[in-house]
Design a protein that fits this description.
The strands form two sheets. The protein has a seven-stranded mixed sheet. The chain has a two-stranded antiparallel sheet with strand order 5-6. The chain is globular. It is 24% helix and 19% strand. Helix 2 runs parallel beside helix 3. By secondary structure, the chain is an alpha/beta fold.
Length: 185
């Protein structure tokens, strides 16, 4: 359970909800086929320069999605996180990510400074009916969303729906894609 987490920045109630959601997501069976189904729905929403998280652990797998985007000729970026700050880096291939989702250096091409990201596919532990997501507690994606006007798309298993009150710094998604449907907010 070392997935992208650093719960030290949160109150205990939200940290407990993260743990509950992580265990729930880990209990999902048939993750790979569900992930492919989610990716097939998501790819139809994506255009232009797309930043996609590189999946780790029990997250919705992005392997199929990234492959499809490469085939379609999209420029695909991966979030490279250092010190809680996300920088989009151009992907040229994928490999096994480290525990926070960064890939080895040889997976990245030359990236222009501050590339325009049209769509951002983000991981999450849970999401509510208003499009707010519970992430891993570091605020990396919320900070990124503040400085970027990209379409914000979450990928989740349907069981990751939850009820919670967002923090004032939380930025809502535009939509969330599950194995059951695309939910617009």
């Amino acid at each position: 359970m070392d997935e992208r987490k650093d719960f030290t920045y949160d109150n205990s109630r939200k940290a407990q909800e993260r743990q509950r959601l992580l265990l729930l997501r880990e209990s999902v069976t048939d993750k790979l086929s569900r992930s492919v189904y989610i990716a097939r729905r998501a790819v139809e929403l994506l255009h232009g320069n797309v930043m996609v998280y590189v999946s780790i652990g029990s997250e919705v797998s992005t392997v199929y999605l990234i492959d499809e985007l490469f085939k379609r000729g999209n420029k695909v970026y991966a979030p490279y996180t250092i010190g809680g700050i996300i920088t989009p880096r151009l992907l040229v291939k994928t490999d096994k990510p480290n525990k926070i989702g960064n890939l080895p250096e040889n997976c990245y091409g030359l990236t222009e400074d501050s590339p325009k990201i049209d769509c951002c596919v983000t991981p999450l532990l849970g999401f509510n009916k208003n499009g707010y997501r519970i992430g891993y507690g570091m605020g990396c994606y919320d900070r990124f969303f503040l400085s970027n006007s990209s379409l914000k798309i979450g990928l989740a298993f349907d069981c990751q729906r939850t009820n919670f009150l967002p923090d004032t710094a939380d930025i809502p998604l535009d939509c969330c894609v599950t194995e059951k449907n695309v939910i617009y907010f």
